[in-house]
Amino acid sequence: MTMADHGDGDQGTGHSFRVTRTNLADGRELLYFDDDPAFVSGERSRELTDRRDLPPAATQSEMRQDPLTGQWYVYAAHRMNRTFMPPANENPLAPTRPGELPTEIPADEYDVVVFENRFPSLSMHTESAASAQVDGDPLFPRAAAVGRCEVVCFTSDATLSFRDLPLRRARTVVEAWAHRTRELGELPGVKYVYPFENRGAEIGVTLQHPHGQIYAYPFVPPRAAEIAERSAAYWREHGRDLFTDVLAAEVRAGTRIIAQGEHFTAYVPAAAKWPVEAMLMPNRPVANFAELAEAEKHELTVMYLDLLRRVDRFFEGVDRTPYIASWNQAPVGGAAQGCGGMRLYLQLYSMMRSPGRMKFLAGSESGQEAWISDTTPEAIAQRLRDIA
Question: Where is the active site (predicted)?
């Protein structure tokens, strides 16, 4: 059932943490990321045994390629009946406490936890597709959706949000992202590792417990592929890094800068399309979380918490702005070749256009991806700067 403990630590900035691995009753992996000194030292240990009676994890997800666009779409019919807005006493992301229903997490308390999703879109347990083609036609390629989907629980307290985490705990989440990016990127067939968080019922969140996810794709998703292509073309034409030039241009203009640090810059992109949108980008080329230096991880955590708190005060009368935190990284493995200096950056955005009103994607946006914005990037930046 269990695997050996191993520890990681960052002594340079005073942040230490310990990673403890185990397997859930159906074989899925779970990792505790602890920053509590008693667990870091080994004085205390987490519960490793999942006492539920679960069948072995297995999925039948498949992918099909659209012949018109070349994009891969994933079909995961087993997710139709996944957990949806459970009552508090059935929260699967809560700790398992005496006298209550067992959850996905065996311990009665935790700092940060990462585990394989019980209802994954992509899985290493996925069986092979029936054939390599739909209807036996080479126009419609098909493949097993082999990859991995993980859940990242930011805290055991279901009433909190990421913005409420103390700096030490938020830093442990950043360490978890780095750890998982490194390991998932080494899985066979994985080409892209994508950490993200959806927050708010308005955008379809089905579990209110503060958590995010990490997808390890067997293909480079469309947005990342498009950015890779453009950055590679920019390098061929100009002999310079596109991200470096974009960041330098934003700093020169200054009108959309939210905050600048030694290692990161927060700004609203000149072509922002969402009603609320900001980017947080490292000042040097860094491909992913795993490549960040310790001082960079620390500053990233501080600036990310500040940005989240600003976004949550963006609208009068709205305490928690619904958002998507999208952590873009460079492709991994062989897919990283020729990506033109792609780097890690956050795209944080909200579909809320005014208090209680959401921007719905109508024909132009959904049908043709031709965006029409209801505001300007400069106005978004000014509001985010004004929120102290």
Answer: 211 (tele-ump-histidine intermediate)
Of 70, 92, 73, 96, residue with least CA distance to 82: 92
pTM: 0.94
223-386 is a CATH 3.30.428.10 domain: yes
Gap between the Cα atoms of 65 and 73, Å rounded = 6
Any catalytic annotation for residue 179? no
What is the token pair recorded at 188?
A: 């066979």
Distance, in Å, from the CA atom of 126 to the CA atom of 147, rounded to the nearest integer, reads 8
- Nearest in space to 177 (alpha carbons), one of 211, 206, 220: 211
Domain covering 6-218 in this structure, CATH number: 3.30.428.10
Q: What contacts 1, CB < 8 A, 6 or more positions away?
A: 22, 23, 48, 49, 50
The catalytically annotated residue of 15, 179, 209, 211 is 211
Would the CATH topology of 6-218 be identical to that of 223-386?
yes
- Per-run averaged pLDDT (10 residues), the chain, 388 residues: 42 78 97 97 96 90 94 81 63 94 96 96 81 92 95 97 98 98 96 96 87 97 94 93 97 98 98 97 96 97 98 96 97 73 94 92 90 94 93
| Strand residues in 247-297 grouped as ranges (E) | 257-260, 264-267, 276-282
How far is the CA of 325 from the CAs of 86, 135, 214, 278, in angstroms? 23, 38, 12, 10
Q: Which residues contact 68 (CB under 8 A, 6 or more apart)?
A: none
The DSSP call for residue 41 is: T
Please name the residue that has the structure tokens 């990681």: 8
Cβ–Cβ under 8 Å, residues 162 and 323: no
